[in-house]
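Renewal narrative, Specific Aim 1. Our central claim is that a sequence can be written position by position from structural information alone. The example that follows is taken directly from our test logs and has not been curated for this report. It begins with the structure tokens describing the chain, in the order in which they were read.
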């Protein structure tokens, strides 16, 4: 059974940092693209960042470029999202996803990030 479990969310003041983790089990982690998405209640899920299988390539939404860094540890089966210079508009539930392509097959349950002004 495939599981993706996010952790590291919480409440932080604007300008602060958080590091999200995505622990994967039940899949060959190094054969999957890892993506991070976020969602505000009542709105559509929004792409945040993506990292290739070998971490050679990364992509970011314009809204987080220069502030967020996606990474992965294939030996540990874990993906990360380092979030710096957080803004109130970054407040959302953050999800990690794994897929053989950009059609992600597996999703975590999400972790809440709240940035206070």
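The sequence written for that structure reads:
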């Amino acid at each position: 059974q495939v599981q993706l479990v996010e952790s590291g969310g919480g409440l932080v003041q604007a300008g602060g940092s958080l590091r999200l983790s995505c622990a994967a089990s039940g899949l060959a982690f190094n054969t999957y693209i890892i993506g991070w998405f976020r969602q505000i209640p009542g709105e559509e899920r929004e792409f945040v960042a993506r990292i290739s299988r070998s971490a050679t390539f990364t992509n970011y939404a314009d809204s987080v470029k220069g502030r967020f860094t996606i990474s992965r540890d294939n030996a540990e089966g874990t993906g990360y999202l380092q979030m710096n210079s957080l803004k109130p508009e970054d407040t959302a539930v953050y999800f990690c996803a794994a897929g053989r392509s950009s059609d992600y097959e597996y999703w975590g349950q999400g972790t809440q990030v709240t940035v206070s002004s």
